[in-house]
Structure formats: structure tokens, C-alpha cells
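Example record

One chain of 596 residues, shown exactly as stored in the release files.
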Amino acid sequence: MTFRYKLLIASAATVMLVIGLVALTVTRTARDAFERLDNQRSDALVAQFRREFAKRGDDVARRVAAIASSDAAQRLAIELNGPQPDTAQYVNAAQDLAAANSLDFLEILLSDGTIVSSAQWPARFGYKEEWISETTGWNARGAFLKREELPVGPVLALIAVRAAAAADKRIYIAGGEKLDRNFLESLAPPAGMRAILYRNLEPGFSPQFLVSSSGPVTQPEKLEPLIDRVRQQRSESKVIVQWSPNAASAEVVHAIPLTSSQAPGARQQLLGVLLVASSRRELVDLEDFIRRLGFGAGAAGVLFGAILSWWATARITRPVRKLAVGARRVAAGDWTARVEVASRDEIGELARAFNEMTRQLADQRDRLVQAERVAAWRELARRLAHELKNPLFPLQITVENLQRARERAPAQFDEVFRESTRTLLAELENLKVIIGRFSDFSKMPPPQLETVNVNDVVRDALKLCEPQLTQPGRPPVELRIECAKLPPIQADPEQLRRALRNLVLNALDAMPAGGVLTVRTSRSGDAIVLEISDTGQGLTPEERERLFTPYYTTKQHGTGLGLAIVQAVVSDHRGKISVESEPKCGSSFRIQLPVV
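Predicted C-alpha cells for this chain:
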């Protein structure tokens, strides 16, 4: 991956991370603020409900008290408490009083709780409400919640009880209103909120007892778990209700239990649950807006970052590419490579340092080449002098012997001449061989590549070395050949045989007392490996460093060109040669040749 794309990805990731964190923080802050506002609005609606409930209770109590203090009620008290009163004539009295005072419920009861007249259910005439007589001080009590039985079923009512007395005669007036939709609508909840009343009049959950200020409650079963929880725990609870797959349809529903301890029959009973539902649409819309804004800002940031990073990397990567091209030219051998400097920043400083480096490298190369040439000529002169000195000395002695024989013993000159001639020819032949070796090294031809099997080349090279292996009087050398199955390669078989023969002969020279010679072929990746190992004297670290240097030898005879020729052959075949050796532990030469 290029630096440009790395910078682009880094800038895009940074922008997205920052915008994501900002959006997350804003979303959480907005959600917390919404929750606080929702709690405040719910508390306000509950407080409003309680105020309205108290207000309605006071209004009901006031109207019931007005009935109880009226002259008609006092006359009823006297008549109903007289000797053998005829209560049947007062069966419809409660209906007239209820209609006149706008009450949904009104009952006239004797002091023992017997119903004389019931506006909501006339048939209850004669029934007895014992809780009326069990409680005292009704005129000091406010309105309370009560389960009220009707012919159509039970309802939840706000009831007040007052005593109507004349002298020592007393009756009770119990009147009230229904807690229904009209009551909830009077709360006037703010936009986005609604009040739902569940009248807890049956042991189990009954959807028909749910009434809402905004109309019928759809999917009432979604509220059942919350209502059941409040019924069991008798404490406030809150839950988020998802009415549809659309997140905007969700509402936060606060549930407040409604109990009454005013009436003995209703003491500590849960008579209803007030549900305050607050829509989450505003929060969902706000979160959607924040997300859209975040995505938009992120896209804009990424685009801006991409443009900025593209511009920045162009200013950086263009000169870096030039530096890379220049470095490749230097690596290819072009020491005159230079990079144009167009800026004064760090990149420009790097380019100037590169140009200065290539200039110094070129100067050092020239000096090194000159020094190597001088050293090579000196080494060549030394080796030539050494190699030529040995045959020249016998030549000199032979010529001097001829001169002395000519001067001192002319009669024996012919015999001395014949012996001297043989010596001269032998040493001249030796000189010819030495000069031929130097000439061969100087005229190493390029390899003539063809498809060859390396194992066949190894076997041919070992056949050429059989005379040295089986030389009479030579200590025995065990030859081990380990050839793996190899693919053919492109190589010069003659040069490979020559290189292998030199390595085998070197191994034999390293084992004057005999030993084991191992020739092994194998494959390693995309290369073929030839390994020649011996159990000879081994090499020191200094000898290993100079082993492939021309004219360097560790033997008393030889020109020191054998391993140099081997290295040249391997290099011409685009291969590598290495040696592993320790003193008295033998040596192992390893050649790697590419398959392709």
C-alpha cells in the first residue's frame, strides 16, 4: 500500500472517528436532555392530574355538601328517621338531586347504611352499605376513589359523602363523578403527551378498562406487562413501548398507581393506574437529524481529507519517487544519477543529500576501482613472478651446466647436452601450462545455455575425477552420491562440469589422509542446490574470506585460480556459491542455481 493511500485512509478514519465521537456525544446529550424534559413533562402532567383530581374532588364534595345542607335533605332526614317511615316514596329522589347538581352518582342512605334511593342504580333500593356506618366524620373527609357497581358493570368513581342532619335525625348523601375520558380530556396534556387511565376493577388485565384522552387505546396488550408490574409492586414504573416497527412511534410510558384509603371498603386497594405516555418522535427525529448531519459532515470531511491528503502526498511522494528512481539507477550502476531539487524543505534537503551521496559514491568508486586495479596488477605480478620463478631457476642451472661442460669437459658435452635438453623442454612445458592457466582465466567465455539435467552433469564430472579418486598409493576416499529428482535448467554443461571438477579436486586435496566425499543435489524453492562436502582439514575464518580471491591459494602448488573460476561460472549462471567450514571439521561448498 502506497503512502498516499495510507495517508488517505488515516485522514478518513480520523475524520470519521472525530465526527462519530461528536455525533455520539451530541446524541447522548440530546437523549439525556430529552429524558430530563420528558420526566419534567411527565411529572408536570401527574401533578396536573393530582391538582385536577383534588379540584374535582373538592367540587364533588362541595356539591354533595350543598345537597346535604339543603332544606330538602334535612326534611328527608326528619321523615326517614320518623316512626314507621315510608321509604318507597323516596326511591326516585336521588335521580332528581343528581340531575339538578350534575352528578353521575348519588345515593341517599340511612344512618345504618341502607340505601333509600340510588340515581345510578335504582334497583339497589334497600341494599346496605356497611362502610357508611363504620366510618365517622364524613363531613371532614374529602372525595376519594371508589369502585362503583352499575348494571353494565363496575366503574371507577370519585365519591364524596356528607351527613344531612336535622336535630338528632341523620341521613347520608353519597355522590360523585365517573373517572372517564371526559375527566382525562380536562387535563389538557401538552403536545406529544397523553394520559391513559386503567381502572383496576377486575383481578386480571382487562383492555376494556383502559381509557385514553386521545381516543381508544390500540394494541392494549403492549401495556399489560407495565400494568401488571404496577399492580404487583404498588409503585411507579416506566417503560418504552414500541407501537410499530417505526422507531418514531415509541412512547415513554410512566405508570402511577392510584389508591384510596378514604373508604373502608377501598382501603389500601389499587383502584387504578394512571399512564402518562410521552412520544419519542422528537428524540427520534433529532437523532436521525444528528446522524444525517454526522454522515454529511463525515462525507464532506472525508472528501476534504482526501483532497488535502492527495495534495499533500503529491508534494511528498513525487520527489520521493524521483529519489527512488535515482536510487534504482545507482543500484543499477549509474553513478551519475542526480535528483532535481525544487524545494527548500526536508524533501529538498533529502534530495541534496542524495545528490551529494551519489557524487561521493562516484568519487569513491573511481578511487576504489583504481586501487583495485593497482592491487590486481600487483597481485598478478606477484603470482606471475612466483610461478615463473620456479621453472626459471632450473633453466638457469641447466644453461650454466651446459656452459661449464663446454669449457671444462668437451668430451662429455654431448651427454650433458642431451640431459639438459630434456630438462629445458620439461620446464618450458611447465611454463607453457602456467601461462595457459592465466590465459584461460582471462578469457572466460560467456556460458552457452542449453537445457541440461544437473544430475547428469554431476555424474559426468565425477567420471572425469575417477583417475584422481583411484590413483595408486592414495589413501582411500569414500564417495557418496545423493541425487534428488530435479527439473531441467538452462545452463552451460561444460562450464558446470569444469566448476564441479575443480570443487571435487579441491576436496580431494583437502583429504590427504583419506575420508568421505559427499556430492548431493536437492531443490530449495525456485533453486537447485549442489553441495560438495569433505571431511578434510577445514578452513579458518580468514581463509574462508579470501577463498574466492583470484591467485589466492592455501596449497603449496597451484595458481589460486580454481575457486575464482568456479565463482565466475556460478555468477554467469545467475547463481550463488557459499562455503561452510571449521578447522579440522571439513568443508562444504554449496551452489544454488535458479530453475527459471
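Notes: Residues 262-266 have pLDDT under 50 and may be disordered.
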